[in-house]
Amino acid sequence: STPARRGSMMKSGVVLALFYALLLTNYATGASSPKLVILWPEDIEEENLDRTFEKIQGASSIHLQGNFDKGTNSSALQHALSSVPDLRHLTIDPFHDLGNGERAQHVTHTRTLVRSLPKPNKLESLKVSGLHVHDQLDVMTLSKAISSCESLRTLHIDPLNVGYRDVQSMDPFFGALAELEGLTDVHFGLFTFGNEEFADALASEGLRRLREAENLPTIRLNTASGNRILTTASEAARRAAILAASRDKRRSGSSQPKEVPAGSKVEQRLADVTVEDRNRIEEDYECGDDDDESDDERDEL
């Protein structure tokens, strides 16, 4: 063959190799991309189990939609979810769209949550709607369930319905949260059936318990009477350091913040705070120069 023909064949070979490489890349990308699967209660019925097991394989995110509390094969549900090794995100939503903008409002009982958690549990995100905590036994059940989620980074429960007549304390639940070292995003929509005094008591209880956890972020808790921020020990220390430095700067008229011991926790907190953070926190917690008592009260919010 002539040199020109050999050159043409080489070019064709290169193009073909690039084409197959592109196909392999696309295939690999598709295989590794997140896979979301939505399951309905009927998917767990005996006659549908085989098809369901096939459908959920390779899923990284599963959304349980509808009322899984009644007439559901609980052992089959947990077995199905446990068969998915890559499952990292689980959403439980008992609400069912009836059409015409209406939704059937079911609830998620703690027992439903427990039997929905895979074993072993490698969840990184857990989102639950309409969770009902009726009594102290439910509190203990919920606490145990959360403790099993050792890899959890995100927890959203909204609404979290707490029975104020039969629930004496949510301390075991908050304690279980405090022990999850990787938790970075926590949100509750607390509903106590109109008993705002009980909601305030729960918020205070959660604040005291969660301050024991240095690694937890700010916990956002929405109630009927407004939004509360449960500030953990690390965040409280950071905000206190910023406020102290800001007040000292205003009193002295100096642009330099108050000096803190080298290597101290306060110094580390200040080093991690951006200018935007300082301005935002000062605006949120603006106070008088000598109003130290009100500063303490702000840390409790």
UniProtKB/TrEMBL annotation:
Alphabetized InterPro entries for the sequence: LRR_dom_sf
Lineage: Eukaryota, Sar, Stramenopiles, Ochrophyta, Bacillariophyta
Species this protein is from: Thalassiosira oceanica
The organism's place on the tree of life at top rank: Eukaryota
Region forming the signal peptide: 1-30
Keywords per UniProt: Signal
Acidic residues bias (residue ranges): 283-301
Biased composition range(s): Basic and acidic residues: 266-282
Protein's UniProt name: Uncharacterized protein
